[in-house]
Amino acid sequence: MRTVLRRPDFRLLFAGLVASMTAESILLLALAIWVKELTGSSGLAGATTFAIIAPMTLAPLVGWVVDRYPRKPLFVAANLVTAALLTPLFAVGDRTDLWLIYLVAIFYGLSYITLNAALSGLLRHLVPAELLADANGVLQTVRQGLRLLGPLAGAALYTAVGGGLLAGVAIVGFVAAAVLVGPLRVAESPRSRPGRSCPGRRAGAACCPRGCTQLSNPASRPRHPLRWSAEFGAGLRYLADEPALRRALLGYGLGSLVMGFSESLIFAYVDHGLRRDAAFVGVLVTVQGVGGLVGGLVSAGVIRRVGEVGALAVGVALFGSAALTLAHPNLWLGCAALLLAGVSLPLTMVGLHTLIQRRTPAPLIGRVAAGADAVVSGPRAISIGGGALLVGVFDYRLLFVVVGLVTLLASSYLWGGRRLSPSAQPAPVGGAPVRRRSPTGAP
């Protein structure tokens, strides 16, 4: 990680991202607390999180927009627009203004997808391929640290100064991110104009050097401009056609179908298993946050050893092991399990993001990154709702066993495809790491 942090261009991007991620982390929980205080309803407070997640259904459209513009100017503009979208929060005074909070939450969810998709493309142009895992690992380490402290800071700040000033602090964070990233010089390769067919396509290739987004068989490719619908779905088609990405999303998607159960199961574990107050969940979340920091620090090394798909497999396996451990209520075992669960999250995120950045043609990376977010977040959102229902019907210990077995099955499927994204080999003196070629011949 020290290698990538020595790069002045990455340090500038890193400073901007720390500012925007800090604003994000203090805002998320505070919005729900604000709604709870205005209405007294836990359900309406929870709906705030749903309002942020709901725009994920528009991820393919957002990715299509992102791929039409240069990454750095788009990233700067998206931060400034996000800051502007928060200004209606200054007008919230009582329960009748609740719709303003939900409106801001929806638009904030859209901006979150946009920023993530633009960041994937920006990192692809800014950081050499052999350092992408280190860059993603550094960012995940910071993100996990902010998840540990940011929500608590946001809640405390809301209590101390109120929602309006809290929104002001978040706005400053997003504006600071735009100001810090603005001076970056990023040499982006020219992209072919949207909607044009590509005569320079290489036979049998997923995408030609000129960035053609038409990914069908060259023999059947018509020689006429692409329709907007073809460009719109190009990212999802690429995810389905590229072997390593397809394996990663199928395996991780399978695990995500049950991973969200833990959001509700952890409360039953603390209540019925440890016989403690619900507030003790905060202690376990802190332990999980410590594990997240560890996972962020070691993720790049794991990817160098077993590749991106292998790192995904390890992360999902750690989560499955944690779930099986939580089936037996014991405080020390529970702390160990939450530590493992914390390590698993950055491993999966760094593995998936690095795989997307390394395996996706630059003109498609916005659509592919946004599409991958939708494919993973959709099952996760469903499982969160399903877990809330199932925990009232079945014993939480049985559900933890189900989560553990399904995620270990998903991990086994991912591990079987680890050779689709080979690990990096030791670099020769003065050279960059050499990656073995996959069986399909992809780099």
Provide an overview of this structure.
It is a single chain. By secondary structure, this protein is an all-alpha fold. 71% of the residues lie in helices and 1% in strands. The protein has 16 helices and 2 strands. It has helices at 2-5, 8-39, 42-53, 59-66, 71-85, 98-126, 132-161, 163-181, 228-232, 234-241, 243-259, 262-273, 281-326, 331-359, 365-390, 396-416, and strands spanning 424-425, 434-435. The protein has a two-stranded antiparallel ribbon. A hairpin with an 8-residue loop joins strand 1 and strand 2. Helix 2 packs antiparallel against helix 3, helix 5 runs antiparallel to helix 6 (98-126) and helix 7 crosses helix 14 (331-359). The longest helix is centred in the last third of the chain and has 46 residues, at 281-326. The model is unreliable at 192-225 and 425-443 (pLDDT under 50).
How would you summarize this macromolecular structure in one to three sentences?
The chain has about 450 residues and is mainly α.
Label the overall shape. globular
Major β-sheet, in short?
2 strands, antiparallel
**C-alpha termini separation:** 23 Å
Low-confidence parts, pLDDT < 50 over ≥5 residues?
A: 192-225, 425-443
Question: What is the arithmetic mean of pLDDT?
Answer: 79
Order of helices and strands: HHHHHHHHHHHHHHHHEE
Please count the beta strands (DSSP E, at least 2 residues each): 2
Strand content: under 5%
C-alpha Rg, in Å?
22 Å
| Helix vs. strand class | mainly alpha
- Name the strands of the widest sheet in spatial order: 1-2
Range of helix content: over 70%
The number of helical runs is: 16
